[in-house]
Amino acid sequence: MENPKKKTLGRRKIEIKKIEKKSSLQVAFTKRRGGLFRKASELTVVCGVEVAILVKSPADKLHSFGHPPGVEALISRAEEKIVGGMEQYLKFLEDFGGKVEEKDNFLIVYLLMMKIEEGLLPSSPIDHLHILGA
Amino acid sequence: MENPKKKTLGRRKIEIKKIEKKSSLQVAFTKRRGGLFRKASELTVVCGVEVAILVKSPADKLHSFGHPPGVEALISRAEEKIVGGMEQYLKFLEDFGGKVEEKDNFLIVYLLMMKIEEGLLPSSPIDHLHILGA
DNA sequence: ATCTCTATGATTAGTAT
DNA sequence: GATACTAATCATAGAGA
C-alpha cells in the first residue's frame, strides 16, 4: 500500500525567530534546554572540560548546568560551611581564599551563582559591601 | 558505476567518553563548542530567553557565550564605570544596588563573570572582603 | 590550528497525552 | 510543565586540504 497515512509530518524546517504561540514556545523551550544541557554534558566528557550554563526560562525561572568534578567537590565542601548563614559564608570565603588558584576564578563564580540561585546567599554582592561597612 | 569510492565514511557513531588523541580532541572541542554556542544562540532567539555559558578549553582558556540584550546593555553601562579600577568598581556596585531588581541577580553575576574574565575585576570576591576590612 | 567533505547518526517540529 | 511519536532536518566523525 502506498501512502499508509503517515502518523506525523516529522520534523519541519523552521525559521530561527521567536515563537509566539505560548504552548509551542513552552514545548520548544523544554526540548531545546534539554538538548543544550545534553550537548554540554557530552562536551565535558568527550573533551574533559568544565562547563557552566545559566538559562532563564520564559517564566523567569533559573535553570543551571555545571559539570566539572572540581566544581561539584567545591560545592559539597561549601555546603556544610554555607548553610550556617552569612557569618559562616564569610568565613568560607576566607578559607577559600587561601586555597584557590588564580585560574579557579571560574569555579568561585560558578559556586557563587549556584548558592545565589538556591537562595543560600544574599541576592547580590552589594549586600556584602553594605554589611561590611562599604 | 556502482560504488564510486565514497569520499568519506560520513558521521560515525562514537561512545561518549574522553578522547585521548590530542589532535582529535582539539578538533572535537572546537566543533562541539561551536555547536553548543549555536544551540544556545538559537534558544535565546526561538524562546526569547537569557543564556550565559562558560567553557574552559583543554588549554584552560575561558570561552563565554551570553545573550540577553539586557546583559549587553548592562555591560555597556558598566564599562565606563568599571575601567577606573577598584574604587570605581565599588561605586558601580553601589549605584547598581539601587536599581536592580531581585530577579536580575542573574545579570549581575553574569556581568561580574565577564569583568573577571577580562581581568577588569579582582580575581575573587575575597579580595573585596579584605579590602573592606573583613 | 581551521576548513572542507559527506554519509550517517542525532535532534527535533508538530501533535497528542 | 514533561514525554511519546515519527519523519525530516540538522549536526558532526573522520579524513584530508
From TrEMBL, chains A, B:
Principal cellular location given in the protein's record: nucleus
SMART domains (UniProt xref): MADS (SM00432)
Transmembrane helix among keywords: no
Keywords of the record: DNA-binding, Nucleus, Transcription, Transcription regulation
Cellular compartment(s): Nucleus
Top-rank taxon, per record: Eukaryota
Example of a GO cellular component annotation carried by this entry: nucleus
A GO term for molecular function: DNA binding
Pfam families reported for this sequence: SRF-TF (PF00319)
Name used for this protein in its record: MADS-box domain-containing protein
Organismal lineage: Eukaryota, Viridiplantae, Streptophyta, Embryophyta, Tracheophyta
